[in-house]
Amino acid sequence: MTIDVTDTKFHWNYFLALEQDLEAASRYIEFCEPNFSVFSIELAHLLFAASSEVDVVAKILCQLVAPNSPCGNIDQYRIALLPEIHDLPGTEVFVPRYGLSFRPWLNWTEGRSPNWWRSYNNVKHERDTYFHEATLENALNAVGALLVITAHYYSRRLSEFDDVPFPAPPVMQRLEPQPSLLRLPSNYYHQW
């Protein structure tokens, strides 16, 4: 028996696994603004895994939308992606169950790396000094950023034309199962 892996949505499946881990953390940490500064080993794990996957997916997305641009770090991703994906910084991620929303890429409007990305690097490289930055807020933003960038990746990957992204609602419809904790804006989904 052979399995056709060309249709396997590895990056979507990885996002879903991380989202499940984040959802499991909600059993121990109430997802609310007063707890945004809570930090832990599990939140560090989520921050590392989500940020690392953002790095992987952003690099591939850069190669799709700007194949001649250098794409080796977060600043180069911003320079390559923003001209092609104008709404990326303003894209809001919702956590409906807890009444939360955030814009994980908003710092890109100011030409800066996202706060969660800076904290990821701080905790990764100088854990003894910066472990307190492995917070709920940073983990939520990193997993949310992964959702946004992964949706944009599949809008290009599923498109039949290299330079025309597939519309968001059919992309999200093809990405199954749907997230159980995080949600993108309504224009990403079919309205029934």
Structural notes for this entry:
This protein is mostly helical and 192 residues long. It has one domain. It contains seven helices and two strands. It has a two-stranded antiparallel ribbon. A hairpin with a 4-residue loop joins strand 1 and strand 2. Helix 1 packs antiparallel against helix 2 and helix 2 packs across helix 4. The longest helix has 25 residues. The chain is globular.
Can you give keywords for this protein?
192 residues, 3% strand, disordered N terminus, 7 helices, mainly alpha, two-stranded antiparallel sheet
In short:
The protein is mostly helical and 192 residues long. The chain contains seven helices and two strands; from the N terminus they run αααββαααα.
